[in-house]
Design a protein that fits this description.
mainly beta; 174 residues; four-stranded antiparallel beta sheet
Length: 174
């Protein structure tokens, strides 16, 4: 939209308050919106990211890892970026998708950062995946994912959510 005081789409799927207290709003149709309160203003001004391609605009889940990198699940796969770098250059991100052979499914529905800093995520009809926390920035360029499905004991390939209990056990809802 032409109004910088308006969110790009009213269908909000996820919200992330980052380590710098900024609010990032993932919409289902309007990409990623950054809400910033201008000094001396009572209202928020929005910046827009990931709204160029059709599938990129559909953001389903977002989380920040222990290194300050943000993982974002969309209808076009998984995007990973450093927030300040994204603000400086909206094309500064890593992209993993089904078409490139990185993921088992194209639509990333749910992201979860466990107590050890590992990232778990679900893909529509493709089970779930695990990625250990990378140790340095350059490692994000070539991540490897461990995928799990029915051959690993799931009753089906539809995983809706992931949680962790106090003992560090990972729980899945199918």
């Amino acid at each position: 939209p032409s109004n910088p005081y308006s969110i790009r789409d009213n269908n909000i799927f996820c919200i992330l308050k980052d380590s710098k207290e900024r609010m990032w709003i993932g919409t289902f149709g309007g990409g990623l919106n950054l809400a910033r309160k201008e000094e001396g203003e009572d209202k928020y001004k929005f910046s827009y990211f990931f709204h160029q391609s059709y599938s990129q605009r559909f953001i389903r889940s977002i989380c920040e890892d222990n290194n300050g990198m943000v993982w974002m699940g969309t209808s076009e796969g998984l995007y990973i970026f450093q927030l300040d770098s994204l603000i400086a250059n909206p094309n500064n991100y890593f992209h993993y998708n089904y078409e490139g052979g990185d993921l088992q499914g194209g639509e990333i529905k749910y992201l979860f950062n466990d107590s050890k800093g590992n990232i778990w995520f679900t893909a529509s009809g493709a089970g779930f995946s695990f990625c250990p926390l990378p140790e340095e920035y350059d490692s994000y360029r070539s991540l490897s994912f461990k995928h799990y499905g029915t051959k690993d004991g799931l009753c089906n390939y539809v995983v809706q959510a992931i949680a962790e209990d106090r003992k560090g056990n990972i729980w899945l809802s199918t």
